[in-house]
Design a protein that fits this description.
heterodimer, A: 113 residues, mainly beta, 6-stranded mixed β-sheet, 5-stranded antiparallel β-sheet, 59% strand, B: 111 residues, 7-stranded mixed β-sheet, 4-stranded antiparallel β-sheet
Amino acid sequence: KQEVTQIPAALSVPEGENLVLNCSFTDSAIYNLQWFRQDPGKGLTSLLLIQSSQREQTSGRLNASLDKSSGRSTLYIAASQPGDSATYLCAVGEEAAGNKLTFGGGTRVLVKP
Amino acid sequence: AAGVIQSPRHLIKEKRETATLKCYPIPRHDTVYWYQQGPGQDPQFLISFYEKMQSDKGSIPDRFSAQQFSDYHSELNMSSLELGDSALYFCASSYRGSGYTFGSGTRLTVV
């Protein structure tokens, strides 16, 4: 059974610092990995999708890497802003029909002005 | 661009009542998923449909059922509601293993 862990559970940084969020998973037979952002009580906004054959994806200030063999992904957010404050969820898609996502517990980020 | 549409946004039901949640996936997406997110928890997979057929089942109680219709919209039916069913219910869709797009969710409160 796939298990996804995110460390740290919470992170507080001053504005302008770079953020590094870690995600690890136990079964390397994944289909893809997706990073989401969730504001309190709101829906899930997709940030980046990395297919299993890819090593990284970039979008603006966001960069996500994937190392399947070691079961790890890292989300980097450069030059953090107070608007980046949210919970960031890592989710792993299983290598099977249906591509069920297994989520990590999330990292709650607070960027202080 | 069209997104995943869920209705209603909020729903308040009493214990033992029945609730129906609706989901309209992105056009041409072939897979629909339902997730439940309790307070302070990460989303838990309930059930998925691929081309209108149930494709996978997670930790969905027997009191819950779901189906996908010919127009690809999906409904999650929950009967004999319990206080513990209070949660955010998300629907998501994808196309051929591409990334998920989630709806805004339905917040169900059971009183």
